[in-house]
Design goal:
426 residues; mainly alpha; two-stranded antiparallel ribbon; 23 helices; 69% helix; globular
Length: 426
């Protein structure tokens, strides 16, 4: 890029094509700030922008999550009359998505007069990327009603939403759509389908899909290894890893997260160390925070708390408090009093003191969330929210169940519930 920039700066005959090429080149090569600087220079030099200029500038805004600049580019291309150019519109939606502004993305999408499959796929992806999986499924259904046929990328994106919701029925319907619209099990459909079945706990169909993938890339292998690892089938996960190596596919960082997770669930300390060291020694991969967390989890689950502590203190990257939380969780399971877990001993004043320190340091956790699929409809429950349409009936049923449990446990019930609520809120 440096040589290209030098040649560009030395040129006395710059036009919209050369300006656009440099802006796009900088954006594609990680020089987003430079791309935006060039876009500004082009504007003030009096050279008119074209669709490629706007796409490059918006891509730079996406990479930098520069919302203000993205809105400025949005306003500028509206002024220049490019609001109906499909690639500009797609880049705009992606910019709002990367900046977490899904409402702006939705508004921009709804204002577009002509929407093709590229734009529909982009807006669905916006909601999936930002965790709004139910809305992504709703948009997909709306797209079908409007007569737009999905492509491979559309189906794989919606399958991600089904995976995150564990929406088995909707996932099977997507599988049928993939067959109906002629999508084979090559990338990206095969691995997305395999992951969907795995997240829904259906390892049989997950394996069936995986075995039918014609050319298995690292994404497909990671998907199947993760499926078995996360569903308590660590032995099969490690066998799949060995099969992948024999077939000549080189593992990546994600592969080793799955493999180390399998070792953790099976209590394989020595094998965990072996895989961890092979990352660097055999595959020239640099361990990341996820790999260190897996090793700490392996040691902690095996009761090797001092070894876990010594390992954490030698880690060369900044990890905040996340690795210590893993050790503390194991300490509570082990009733390891001296480490400092107080909930097991019902030392509620100490528990509250730790909570207060966490709040002061900005340490928190996402609210608990669960999904329930019933009669082909997805019900979402988030801790603390009372907006479900059946909330009155749910409360009545919970009251009935509580009364039934109270009659069985007697006086111990109130103390048990009080302790549970204290631990759950920590």
């Amino acid at each position: 890029m440096d040589d290209a920039l030098n040649m560009f700066n030395a040129s006395n005959n710059k036009n919209s094509i050369t300006w656009s090429a440099m802006i796009s080149g900088c954006a594609q090569n990680g020089e987003s700030k430079k791309a935006l600087d060039l876009f500004s220079q082009m504007h003030f030099s009096g050279i008119g922008s074209n669709e490629f200029t706007f796409v490059g500038a918006l891509n730079a805004c996406s990479d930098e999550t520069s919302l203000l600049e993205g809105k400025q580019v949005h306003a500028y291309f509206l002024k220049q009359g490019y609001q109906n150019q499909v690639y500009v519109k797609s880049a705009l939606l992606d910019t709002y998505a990367k900046c977490g502004c899904i409402n702006d993305a939705q508004k921009a999408f709804d204002e577009m007069k002509s929407k093709d499959i590229v734009l529909w796929t982009t807006i669905i992806s916006v909601f999936v990327q930002n965790g709004e999986h139910e809305k992504a499924l709703t948009l997909y259904l709306r797209m079908k009603r409007e007569g737009i046929f999905p492509n491979k990328l559309t189906i794989s994106t919606v399958l991600r939403a089904c995976s995150n919701l564990a929406a088995f029925e909707q996932g099977k319907q997507l599988h049928a759509h993939a067959i109906k619209f002629g999508c084979n099990l090559g990338p990206p459909i095969g691995s997305a389908l395999s992951t969907m079945y795995a997240k829904c706990g259906n390892l049989a169909d997950c394996t069936l899909v995986f075995r039918k993938i014609p050319e298995k890339d690292i994404i497909a292998w990671n998907s199947i290894i993760s499926a078995f690892s996360q569903n308590g089938r660590g032995k099969e996960a490690l066998k799949l890893f060995d099969e992948m190596i024999l077939e000549g596919t080189k593992p990546d960082n994600i592969t080793f997260v799955n493999v180390l997770s399998a070792c953790s669930h099976m209590g394989l300390v020595d094998k965990g160390w072996k895989y961890f060291h092979s990352m660097v020694d055999e595959y020239n991969l640099t361990p990341e925070i996820e790999h260190y967390a897996c090793m700490v989890d392996i040691l902690s689950r095996a009761g090797k708390l001092k070894e876990a502590k010594d390992f954490i203190e030698k880690i060369p990257i900044n990890h905040g408090m996340c690795l210590w939380r893993i050790v503390l969780g194991a300490c509570r399971d082990e009733k390891y009093y001296n480490i400092g877990v107080y909930a097991v001993q019902k030392r509620w004043q100490d528990v509250e003191r730790v909570r207060r320190v966490m709040r002061e340091r900005g340490v928190g956790k996402d609210p608990a969330c669960s999904w329930l699929e019933m009669n082909s409809k997805m019900h979402v429950f988030v801790k603390g929210e009372l907006r479900h349409c059946e909330m009155e009936r749910i409360r009545a049923e919970l009251a009935r169940l509580s009364q039934h449990i109270r009659s069985d446990f007697g006086e111990d019930f109130e103390e048990m519930i009080e302790d549970f609520e204290r631990v759950a809120s920590s």
